[in-house]
Amino acid sequence: MAIDKEKIKQAIRLFLEGIGEDPDREGLRETPERVARMWEEFERIRTFDMKLFEEFGGYNEMVLVKDIRFYSLCEHHLLPFFGKVHIAYIPDKKISGLSKLVRTVRAFALRPQVQERLTEEIADFLERELEPKGVGVVIEAEHLCMSMRGVMSPEHLTVTSALRGVFLKDIRTREEFLKLVKGK
Ligand code: ZN
Asked: 74 catalytic, yes or no?
């Protein structure tokens, strides 16, 4: 994805006119520029060094990282959906530090998304880069496009999951993961 700031600025100005606002009034005058700059920032956050996972031997118990906060944008309405990602994997050769998992989540979240695909993309990426025996990803999120329109109550959470490797094949591993995710 390449950011075209001029296109974003034109579009935001037109959008503001479209909803009956005056894009030249004080508070909105800089808005197209601000939005364009924000997307440039998102672009910078998205591109990170994917070869960050360390070689490590000897540990093959489940690694679980709960409650990674994330913010994404639903691609149907361009409104935020946000919440928590829970990631577990059973290492084979490599492990990942917490900050790398957080960056992985951000890289896939900061773009127009749907929650199901975000969940799958994180699981596929970790399966490819970490080469674990298995990986599981659960996302709990509130979607503002639903909450703001009153379609769902604000506290309603949508839950999605993606399982790979032994998390898919072995019922006990899967149940252990899901139990750990639910336990607060
Ligand atoms: Zn939506």
From this structure: yes
